[in-house]
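Following up on my earlier thread - several people asked me to post the actual chain instead of describing it. Fair enough. Here it is, all 160 residues.
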Amino acid sequence: MRFIRNAILGSIMLTASAAAPVRALEAGDFPVSGYHVTATPHGFGALVKRLNAAIKSNGMFAVTRASASAGASSRGITIPGNMIIGVYRNDFAVRMLEASIPVGIEAPLIFYVTENADGTATLSYRALSATFAPDGSAALDEMAGELDTLFAKIAADAVK
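Reply from S.P.:
Thanks for posting it. Predicted structure:
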């Protein structure tokens, strides 16, 4: 399900990017609250590499990738770089599903890298406390706190 949502999101971004000027994302650009958005001095490819290294060094796994820009490139179309990287680890997955089967649709948890007009890139992700809050589960809230700390560390390592 998450893959289908990400594919649809990528298609929408492909269409929107062709019609709109490229600018850095801001937290207010997202339709719901809880997003952390960090502009970086790194180029798109460099930030993707840095993020992959930070995910690994913090004990998590990149389990999915989706990129409308890579797909467009394979068709001879150039659009600004974008990539969604799905991140997870099985011990968190088991705890999440023990707390709530329906919230499993949120996995994997994602980071989003976007290329800016000036050649730099932006890193975005939604706080897991915001993602899991609607479920109303104390066990999920506890796990979300752990994941918020872990995702903040991954992001900080990637953008430094």
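The chain has a mean pLDDT of 87. That should answer part of your original question.
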